């Protein structure tokens, strides 16, 4: 054990935050899945606990292995991973497993596990964009030579993710533009991209407002609008916008009502670990709405602590960005940390009804799956950058002595 700890490098505060989130995940997932496990496995309430423990153990192993790899290796494989992710996204879009009118997953043979390709695509994208930003710094202000090579992969990835998962596409695009801003891309170019990207989003909101009739049903109007609204993912998006904008307290979506009840029951200190009652009524209490269960059981204090952990994680990654001597490592640590923290904030905002309902999970806390493992890989890569920073600082100290 001591040998393993001695070989564990990188930012120790980030390691601590990871362990805290993993312990939280184990406790809350066990509580949130108790009733489900009882029904599915004939009283064996510990089944999902063991599964989550296995995912956490595998995740920690992935973090450890990834952080031992020199992060320069990730620059060399970034283009290959990105080129692999694009056909996977296309395949998922047309032939993926359909759940809730969305093709987000492909089923892996042999192990029979679903794999959300957007998780891999996001990781590959920010590795590749970090590589591009580091290589284009001399011409980054030029639209053709600097901006287009950076924004094109972001646009392609977001367009392929959007039909099945608009919220993930928007979060990915926002993170990409934020990284571009930090990477010294011209502000005018970023604003132009925001305007172009806002056109379909504003159109969607406009359709939702124009077709709302007070009962969350399509307005009987001739033309394309009513046809689109009544079918497929566009209908789902429009319905969610209408629910968020127009729904009154007693007319809010079912999951939001149950999440509010959970938060109200939690108060300041919560009802105690394992004492949640809303886990029996709240859809997906172990993934999309796990933050509401955290507040119910651990109160507003527990909810604030989770926010604090993610913010500390982000601050430490910003510290790596400032200390990393090489541009690729700096952009890589910042890009991956931004995507994880922004996803976390989006999930928590949905749980407290600040954002429309989305399908994003709480990183390292929600029940394990492909998202959990790719989150672990992203953190391992960030710690790889941290390990390199530690080595450089140690060499500087040695030289000064």
How are the secondary structure elements laid out?
Layout: H1 2-6, H2 12-32, H3 34-40, H4 47-68, H5 72-95, E1 97-99, E2 102-108, E3 113-116, H6 117-135, H7 143-161, H8 166-182, H9 187-211, H10 224-229, H11 232-246, H12 254-266, H13 290-323, H14 327-351, H15 370-400
Antiparallel strand pairs: 1-2, 2-3
Structural account:
The chain has a domain at 1-68 and 250-401. The model is unreliable at 216-231 and 396-401 (pLDDT under 50). The chain has helices at 2-6, 12-32, 34-40, 47-68, 72-95, 117-135, 143-161, 166-182, 187-211, 224-229, 232-246, 254-266, 290-323, 327-351, 370-400, and strands spanning 97-99, 102-108, 113-116. Strand 2 (102-108) and strand 3 (113-116) form a beta hairpin. It has 15 helices and three strands. The relative contact order is 0.15. The chain has a three-stranded antiparallel β-sheet with strand order 1-2-3. Helix 4 runs parallel beside helix 15, helix 6 runs antiparallel to helix 14 (327-351) and helix 7 packs antiparallel against helix 8 (166-182). It is mainly α and 401 residues long. The chain crosses the membrane at residues 12-36, 48-67, 73-96, 150-183, 190-212, 289-314, 326-350, 362-383. It is an enzyme of class 2 (transferase). One of its GO terms (molecular function) is lipid-linked peptidoglycan transporter activity.
């Amino acid at each position: 054990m001591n040998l393993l700890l001695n070989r564990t490098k990188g930012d120790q505060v980030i390691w601590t935050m990871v362990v805290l989130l993993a312990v939280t995940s184990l406790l809350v997932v066990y509580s949130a899945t108790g009733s489900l496990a009882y029904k599915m496995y004939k009283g064996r309430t510990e089944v999902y606990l063991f599964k989550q423990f296995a995912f956490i153990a595998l995740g920690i192993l992935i973090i450890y292995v990834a952080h031992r790899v020199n992060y320069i290796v990730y620059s060399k494989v970034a283009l290959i991973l990105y080129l692999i992710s694009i056909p996977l996204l296309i395949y998922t879009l047309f032939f993926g497993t359909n759940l809730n009118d969305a093709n987000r997953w492909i089923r892996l043979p042999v192990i029979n596990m679903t794999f959300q390709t957007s998780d891999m695509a996001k990781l590959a994208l920010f590795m590749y964009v970090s590589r591009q930003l580091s290589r284009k710094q001399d011409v980054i202000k030029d639209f053709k030579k600097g901006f287009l090579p950076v924004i094109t992969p972001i646009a392609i990835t977001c367009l392929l993710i959007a039909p099945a998962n608009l919220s993930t596409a928007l979060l990915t695009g926002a993170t990409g533009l934020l990284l571009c801003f930090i990477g010294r891309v011209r502000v005018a170019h970023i604003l132009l991209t925001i305007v172009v990207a806002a056109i379909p989003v504003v159109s969607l909101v406009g359709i939702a407002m124009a077709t709302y009739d007070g009962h969350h049903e399509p307005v009987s109007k001739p033309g394309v609008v009513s046809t689109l609204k009544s079918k497929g993912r566009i209908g789902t998006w429009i319905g969610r916008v209408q629910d968020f904008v127009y729904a009154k307290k007693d007319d809010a979506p079912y999951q939001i009502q149950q999440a509010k009840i959970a938060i109200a029951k939690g108060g300041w200190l919560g009802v105690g670990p394992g004492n949640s009652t809303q886990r029996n009524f709240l859809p997906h209490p172990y993934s999309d709405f796990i933050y509401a269960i955290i507040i119910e059981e651990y109160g507003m204090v527990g909810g604030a602590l989770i926010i604090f952990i993610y913010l500390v994680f982000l601050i430490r990654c910003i510290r790596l960005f400032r200390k990393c001597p090489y541009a690729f490592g700096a952009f890589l640590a910042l890009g991956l940390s931004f995507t994880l923290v922004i996803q976390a904030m989006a999930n928590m905002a949905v749980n407290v009804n600040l954002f429309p309902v989305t399908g994003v999970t709480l990183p390292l806390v929600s029940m394990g799956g492909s998202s959990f493992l790719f989150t672990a890989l992203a953190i391992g890569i960030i710690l790889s950058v941290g390990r390199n920073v530690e080595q450089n600082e140690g060499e500087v100290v040695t030289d000064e002595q």
